[in-house]
Amino acid sequence: MQFVNDFQGHCRHAMSNILNKCYLLLVLCIFAFVAFAQEAEIMPQNNVLKPTLLRLADADFINIGKIMDREWRDFSFTLSNTQKRPLKVLKLRANCPCLDITEPVINKVLQPDEGFTGKARINATKLPLGEFHRLLIVEVENEELQLISLRGESVPMLEYEPAQTIELGSFAGVNVPWKRRFKIKSRFPEGRLQLHEPKASAHFDYKLSSLSAQEFELEISAKMPLPVGRLRQIIDIPCSGVENYGPVQVALFGRVTGWKLALANKVMQLNPQEADDKGRICGEVKLSLADEKARGLRMQRMLGRGSTQKKSTKNLPNMQPVSNEEEETDPLDSLETWKSISEELSIDLPEGCELQKNPQPDGVILKLSFTKELLAKRSVMTLMLKRNNKAMQRIVVQSVQ
Fold first, then answer.
1. Which domain holds residue 364?
2. What's the pLDDT band for 23 if we cut at 50, 70, 90?
3. HEC readout, the chain
4. pLDDT tens, 168-202?
5. How much is the pTM?
6. Which of 125, 155, 185 is a domain's end point?
C-alpha cells in the first residue's frame, strides 16, 4: 500500500511539473505573438504591402524615387475606398521620424470609390543612405490598420573626411586647447552648393574655409573648460545653391570627465594658545589631485588610454582622442590651471573666520584663520568647501589645548 501511495504521489508531482511547463510555454507563445503583432504594425516587410480597404491610384506603393541625402521633399497621394460600403478614415500617421504628415487628422467618411488626398514631407537627413522602405498608417473606424508602403533611395551627395562624425573618447576638458577638422566634398555640379560658416556656440568656435569649388574644410576649436558629462555636439552648416537641401551636419562625440580633486587633510586641529602676531589662530588644508600616488598612471586611468583604445584609434580614422593632447601637455602642472581652479572655490565662513587661497604648481593651499573668541565658542565646527557654489568636501575644525 505504501508503494502504491508513493507511486501515486510521484505521478501527481510529475504531472504537476508537466502542467507548469506547458503553462509557461503557453505564456511565452502569447508574449511572442503579441510582440510580433505590434512589430508587424509598424515594420515594413520585404513584399509590397497592399491595403485591403483602401487603394492607391495606379500603384501598389508610393514611389519617392531618388532623393538627395540632405533633401526634404513634399509629396501627396490619393487613397480610395475599395469597399461597397462607407468607410470613416480617422487619422494618418507614419512609422518613421523622417515622415511628417501635413494633416494627420482626417475624420472623413468615404463612399464607395470615393477618395481623399494626403500630404506629407519626407526628410532625408533622418534616413540611412541607400534604398529605404517606410510605412504610412491609416486608421479606419472599426477596421484594422491600413498600411501604405513608401519606397525610395537616399543618394549621397557629400563625402566627409575622416567621416561625418569624430569620436573624441574620454578626456578632462579643463584647459588644454584642441581643434578638430572636417573636410566636406560636394558631388553637385561645380560651384553649385555653397556652405556657410556656422555661428559660434557656447563651447565651440567654427572656421569654414573653401579649399576649391567642390571642397570645404570646417575647423572646430573647443572653448575651455567644457561641462562635465557626455559630449554630443552636432554642428549644422548652413548651405545654399540647392533647393530644399540642407543643412549639412557633422558631429563630435565623447565624454568630459574633468579633474577629480580632493583635500589632502580634512581635519584641522588648532591650539588657541598658538596665535600669530595679529592674535589669530591659523591652519591650512591642501586641495590637489584625488590620487597623487598614481600620478604617472592617472591619464591612462582617467582618460581611457588603454591598449583597446589604441587599437581602435589605429583602425578607425574618425577616432581622434583629445587625451593625446592632454597627456602631452599635462596641464595640472601649470600654476595658471590652479589659479583658475582657486577662483572657483569658496567656503561659507562664520563671523570671526577668514579664508586665503594660495595657488601652487600642484594644488591650492587653503589658509583659514580664526579669532580666539570664535574657537572658544565653537570648539568643533564643520565648514563646507564649494566649487562653483556646489558642495565639494567638508573641513572639520577642532580646538585643542
1. 261-293+331-399
2. low
3. CHHHHHHHHHHHHHHHHHHHHHHHHHHHHHHHHHHHHHHHHHCCCCCCCCCCCEEECCCCCEEEEEEECCEEEEEEEEEEECCCCCEEEEEEEECCCCEEECCCEEEEEECCCCEEEEEEEEEHHHCCCEEEEEEEEEEECCCCCEEEEEEEEEECCEEEECCCEEEEEEECCCCCCCEEEEEEEECCCCCCCEECCCCCCCCEEEEEEECCCCEEEEEEEECCCCCCEEEEEEEEECEECCCCECCEEEEEEEEECCCCEEECCCEEEECCCCCCCCCEEEEEEEEEECCHHHHHHHHHHHHCCCHHHHHHHHHCCCECCCHHHHHHHCHHHCHHHHHHHHHCEEECCCCCEEEEEEEECCEEEEEEEEEHHHHHHCCEEEEEEEECCEEEEEEEEEECC
4. 999 989 878 999 999 999 999 988 999 999 999 99
5. 0.64
6. 155
